[in-house]
C-alpha cells in the first residue's frame, strides 16, 4: 500500500467478516448462502438476547414510586424500551422471512424485477428483498404518495 493511503476498515455484521467473492464464482452459491445464513442467525440471536435483557431489566427495575415524577420517568423509560423492542420484534420476523428464502433458494434476487440484488448490498442490508433500482423507485413513489 502506498505511503499516505489509509486502508478502510470493513465492519463485520454480527461478528461475521464480509464475504470475499472469488473471480467467476456463481452468484448465491452454497458458500454465499451459508455466509448470509450465519449473519442472519447471529443477528437474530443478538436481537433475542436484547429482548430477554429488556424483560429482565423491566422486571428487576419495576418499582412503585410514591413520587409521581419518578413514576412518570420510569414509565417513559419503559415505553421507550418497549418501542425499541417492538421494532426489533418486527426485524426478527423479517430476518426469519429472509432465512426462509435462503432455505427455498430464493434469496439474493429482487422481489420486484428478479435480478441479482448483489453481494455488497446484501452485506450492508442482509434482509434486502429489492435491488437498489427497485428500492429507489419504491421510495420515490412512497414520498410522492405521502406528499
From TrEMBL:
Signal peptide: none
Ranges in coiled-coil conformation: 44-105
UniProt xrefs under PROSITE patterns: ZF_DKSA_1, ZF_DKSA_2
A biological process from GO: regulation of gene expression
dksA C4-type zinc-finger residues: 110-134
Cell compartments where the protein resides: Cytoplasm
Keywords (A to Z) from UniProt: Coiled coil, Cytoplasm, Metal-binding, Zinc, Zinc-finger
Residue ranges annotated for the DnaK suppressor protein DksA N-terminal domain, each copy included: 32-102
Binding site for Zn(2+): 110, 113, 131, 134
Molecular function per GO: zinc ion binding
Gene3D superfamilies in the cross-refs: DksA, coiled-coil domain (1.20.120.910)
A Gene Ontology term for the protein's cellular component: cytoplasm
Zinc finger DksA/TraR C4-type domain residues: 106-138
Domain of life: Bacteria
Family: Belongs to the DksA family.
Its biological purpose: Transcription factor that acts by binding directly to the RNA polymerase (RNAP). Required for negative regulation of rRNA expression and positive regulation of several amino acid biosynthesis promoters. Also required for regulation of fis expression.
Oligomer status and interactors: Interacts directly with the RNA polymerase.
Protein name as annotated: RNA polymerase-binding transcription factor DksA
Species: Shewanella piezotolerans (strain WP3 / JCM 13877)
Gene that produces this protein: dksA
Amino acid at each position: 500500500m502506498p505511503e499516505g493511503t489509509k486502508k478502510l476498515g470493513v465492519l463485520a455484521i454480527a461478528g461475521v467478516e464480509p464475504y470475499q467473492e472469488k473471480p467467476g464464482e456463481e452468484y448465491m452459491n452454497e458458500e454465499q448462502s451459508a455466509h448470509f445464513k450465519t449473519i442472519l442467525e447471529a443477528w437474530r440471536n443478538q436481537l433475542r438476547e436484547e429482548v430477554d435483557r429488556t424483560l429482565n431489566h423491566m422486571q428487576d427495575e419495576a418499582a412503585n414510586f410514591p413520587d409521581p415524577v419518578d413514576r412518570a420517568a420510569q414509565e417513559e423509560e419503559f415505553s421507550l424500551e418497549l418501542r425499541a423492542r417492538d421494532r426489533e420484534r418486527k426485524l426478527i420476523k423479517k430476518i426469519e422471512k429472509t432465512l426462509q428464502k435462503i432455505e427455498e433458494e430464493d434469496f439474493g434476487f429482487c422481489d420486484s424485477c428478479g435480478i441479482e440484488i448483489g453481494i455488497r448490498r446484501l452485506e450492508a442490508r442482509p434482509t434486502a428483498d429489492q435491488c437498489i433500482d427497485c428500492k429507489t423507485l419504491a421510495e420515490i413513489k412512497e414520498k410522492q404518495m405521502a406528499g
